[in-house]
Write a structure and sequence with these properties.
There is one protein chain. The chain is mainly beta. Strand 7 and strand 8 form a beta hairpin. The protein is built from two helices and nine strands; from the N terminus they run H-H-E-E-E-E-E-E-E-E-E. The chain has a single domain, classed as Lipocalin, CATH 2.40.128.
């Protein structure tokens, strides 16, 4: 029986653990992403275009295109939800007048859609800019 189980596992006939799925999804996010477009209620948020979001080792560093300080967040994802969820928390001191709300995301190839609710609002249920910010990011070439 043990040999049969080992053969089934080695052939990939048993699904990977939830942690393996989570690790795989997190690995797909790793890298540097550039904001191509950001909108709220159909209006472009020009100041966000060109920002870089760098995902690595459970942290996301946001680098604005202007001479503003970068912000570092810890993040946690749940790719099993539809849409997939992502939660951010400031890593270290929280800048004055700063807060970040719950979010959802979708990753297709080298395009990442990230939808953030206002801090006092519930998590978005779809990837739309109605009442929340929708970022469209492209993976930066290495």
């Amino acid at each position: 029986m043990t040999q049969l189980l080992a053969a089934i596992v080695s052939l990939g006939l048993v699904s990977p653990t939830a942690q393996d799925d989570l690790d795989r999804a997190a690995k797909l996010l790793e890298g540097t992403w550039t904001v191509e477009k950001a909108t709220i209620d159909g209006k472009e948020v020009v100041a966000s275009v060109g920002s870089e979001f760098q995902f690595a080792a459970g942290r996301m560093t946001m680098k604005p295109p202007m001479d503003l300080p970068e912000q570092v967040f810890k993040y946690r994802i749940d790719p099993t939800k539809k849409p997939a969820t992502i939660d951010f928390a400031f890593d270290g001191a929280v800048p004055a007048n700063s807060a970040i709300g719950p979010a959802v995301y979708e990753l297709e190839g080298d395009t990442l859609k990230l939808c953030l609710a206002a801090p006092d609002k519930p998590r978005p249920t779809e990837l739309t800019d109605q009442g929340q910010v929708l970022f469209i990011l492209k993976r930066k070439a290495k």
